[in-house]
Design brief:
By secondary structure, the chain is of the alpha/beta class. The protein contains 22 helices and 29 strands. Strand 15 and strand 16 form a beta hairpin. The structure holds iron/sulfur cluster.
Amino acid sequence: SSVAAQSPSGTDTHCPYCALQCGMTLRPAADGAGRTGLEVTERPSFPVNRGALCGKGRTAAEVLAPHVRLTQPLVRSASSGELEPAGWDEALGLVAGALARTREEHGADAVGVFGGGGLTNEKAYALGKFARLVLGTSQIDYNGRFCMSSAAAAGTRAFGVDRGLPFPLADVARTDCLVLVGSNLAETMPPALRYVTELRENGGKLIVVDPRRTRTAEQADLHLAPRPGTDLALALGLLHLAVAEGRLDTEYIETRTSGWPEARSAAMAHWPELVERVTGVPVPELRRAAGLFCDAGHAMVLTARGPEQHSKGTDTVGAWINLCLATGRPGRPLSGYGALTGQGNGQGGREHGQKADQLPGYRRLDDPAARAHVAGVWGVDPASLPGPGRSAYELLDALGGDVRTLLLAGSNPVVSAPRAAHVEQRLRALDFLAVCDVVLSESARLADVVLPVTQWAEETGTTTSLEGRVLLRRKAADPPEGVRTDLEVLEALAARLGWEKGFPADPEEVFDELRRASAGGPADYSGISYDRIAQEDGVFWPCPEPPGGEGEGARPPHPGTRRLFLDRFATPDGLARFVPVMHRPAAEEPDEGYPLLLTTGRVLSQYQSGAQTRRVGALNSAAPGPFVELHPRLAEQLGAEDGDALTVVSRRGRAVAPARVTRGIRPDTVFMPFHWDGEGRANSLTSAALDPVSRMPEFKVCAVRVERAGPG
Ligand code: SF4
């Protein structure tokens, strides 16, 4: 069948890393000598990346090699205190025993579950169901909370539903003005940059907002470099100029939106001169940006983590959405607002129930109708479903307190969480930690039991890309002996805890149940099947199943929804909502003791916590370790030169890494990538101040001081 898509040329599938989910083909290595016997080749027929891959995708077969990953369960020995190889029966028995015991002794909410945005839709769905049914706990959340939850919250608030991009990525190439806010596409998802290049070849304008002159910013017609933590003021300043210069789309505001007067008043309080003082962006640059954006026939704003990972991330994204609404962009062709999701299944991972406040289909857990629908699919009483739990950081912070046992799957918070040393300490304080992972990550090293699981090319499952396109990752290779799929692990644990049925290990069976659970919800997958995804190169949600279902006599299938909001928004009255927002300072502003700003991000050759990419030789040679990027003026003040070891100190800890001196950063700001553990761990420094709506931590700005590290 097309689902298998095995041919002599290989198996068509998708990259294990970022949300672009590039199409690729895995085939037997040409010389047969590769460490895995497989190699990644181009798959030009897939329309999003059309064969292009970044270095991470090209080398993705290497993480399948047995020597870089776990191939048998590990159990912490009572005598040596070390993790030692064990059989599956013993390991699963220990985990099930700990889950049951904690529940019995301390109540269901003493058991926590922490998932990941890299898990397939099927795994995210099964994990959420396992937590709420088998464990009966409300304490489940996932690392996607650290990724783009502010954009999701702001999108839902304004449009009634959040889908990263409400239009295909290819629309970027045909708009007239693109504003990229806090996105370094050139390094985070290089194949997507092609659309930006096409945009410029077509005569479109590119504005990049980033405190660093990144490789992406270098391509811009206009690069605005605001002080970290002030994107909100910048967006309000642009809206102020749009109002003052009469560049609004008043008909659109009247017919397609609500709440404009309040949003207008908030923007009018942000005079350009005030915005210049707050952001450091000169008024003429503000005027030029407002002119380019407002005068363009079609225009769009895309945000990424830059404006989102803040204690005011939801309002910051809201300010950019307000600018788009006031100029009549969302729901119009080649225009609008979108968020560039980060993790491989960042979109689908947040739709199917591993988030503290959500049920499958992107339904709210506190909505009685949603509870009744999902409970019906699961065959349980809606009243038996727990309510919303804590957000990711709050859950991690509660470990060893009222949450005593944790099941961690597909995440490495020791490296990726804010205030990481504290999080590490909380993980150590647990009564019991069980980790399902592919490799022995820094977090897995702390576990009582580690369960080795399969990864991308060793299992079939779906992911949902940043476009809302549901894709099929196909199994292309058998896993090493001794490794099981996450679904098999959940099936086995559920059985040991008294649930013989309801947790199938077959991904297509799980997907079929997910379809039913999502039916009628905002992210409706009911009309999507593995066969359709395979035949159509992905299907965009919502895609409801037509009344009458499939089969003979049924209505034609729903085509899926490439572009949202063309006629109405997903709000009760169909109107997009302006939300009045005001600039406010970061949770931590520089002072005498910590006079500089730290911002964090990614580099081209590593991915997230680096658990996979640090194990790939070519990627590691290209990006072997952390660094501190700083302006020559600051370097001179410190008496430091390129390569000198610097110590960065915040109120939460310190990190040591070599200096990288560049004019491409503001003199008041230093930058560190966050992919590493050890003394260069950037997240030892970051702040856990949370956004009140999205509960996103403030990764993107905190106060630090920088010193030259002592010898040795
Ligand atoms: Fe993989 Fe993202 Fe690179 Fe594409 S851009 S090859 S999806 S890491």
